[in-house]
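User: I'm curious whether this sequence folds into something compact or stays loose and floppy. Could you predict its structure so I can see for myself?
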Amino acid sequence: MTTRYRTNPFFRGGWGQREDDPAFVGNVAGRDPIVGGDDVEKLYCLYWATEPRSRDELVGALVDDLGLDADAAEASFDWLREQEFLLPAAEYGENVTQWIDNGWRFALYYHEYVNGATDGDAGPVEPGGDESSLGGPADRTRTGEDLVELPSPPSFPEQSVGDVLFDRETCRDFSGDSIAAEKLSGLLERGLAGDPGAAAIAARRSTYLNVYPFVARVEGVEPGIYRYLPEAYGLQPVDLAYDAEELDELVTQLIVGQDYAERAAVTLFVTIDWPALRRETTHPRGLRTAYVMTSQLAHVALLAATAYGLDTFQTAAFEDTDIASVLRTNRLREAPGYVLAFGHGIEEER
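Assistant: Here's the prediction. I'll summarize afterward.
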C-alpha cells in the first residue's frame, strides 16, 4: 500500500518585517526553518501536499514543475519528512495531537523566556525542574502550619452595580488601618469564586488561577504570605516570617518599586497554573485565554472590594522571577499574572 503524506497542520509562515529579513520564513515548533528564496522547492512541496500525496507524486512535482534533478528533489522530500513538515496521512490525527502539544510548549517557553524565565525554571523538554530550589531564603520560611479557616463572608450592601462602578477608584495612599477578617473572607469567596449565576465560569477559572494573599493588616490573621484554597475555604501558610512593615517593603520590591500598595491591609498575587490550563484547552492560544480570565477575576475582585467599602490598587507591573522565588513556584508551571491591593485609603488624599 502506497504511503501518502500531508503538510503538518502546525506549519506556520511569515513575511519579513525589515529590509534585511528573508522574504518569507516558515517553521514548525522546534524545527529548522524554511527560508523563502533559498528553499522554494520545499515550500512548493508543502503547498502540493495540502492534499494527501505519495512520495513519487511529490518528488515528481519538484522535478516536472521546478526542474530539479531527481536527487535534489528526493533530498528535499527527505528533509521535510525528517523535520516532520510532512506527516503520514494515515497517522494524521495522532500527529496533530502531538503537534498541538509541541505548539503549546513552544508558545509557553517563548512567552516565559522573553519575560525573564531562566533555564533553572524548566528542563529542556518538559515544564518542570527542581521546584524545591526556587523558594526564598530557607531561614525565613515557616511551613506546615495548619490551615487558617476563614469566617463566613458578609453579604454585599444593598446598592446597584452602577453605584459600585461609579464609586470605584484607584487608591495610591493607604492608611495602614486593619480590616476585618470577614471582609477578606468576602473578598476571596464572593469576589474571586463568583456568585451562583456565574458558577460555571468561576469553577472553570478556579482550576488554573491561584491567589496568594500577602496578609499585612487583617484582624485575627497572622501577617504573612498565604495561598487561598477555595475548596477548603481557608488560607494555607506559605511564609509567616514577615511582619506588616516587612510585607510592605517586599510588595514594593516585587511591583518594581511602586509604593502605592504600602500600608495596604492585604495584597493578592494572582498566578496562572499552566499545566492546569493545558488540561482545559489544547491550543497554544489558551495562553491568551488565561490573561483574559485573569483580568476578569481582577475586575470582579475590585468591584467586590468597593462594595465592601474597601479602597483598591492594581498593577500588572512586577518582577516575575522575584515573585516566583518568593512564592516558591516554577515559572513554567505557575507564573504571576496580576497584583491587587486592598485596604482603607487616607481620605484627604483621595
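Summary: The two ends are 78 Å apart (CA to CA). The chain has eleven helices and 13 strands.
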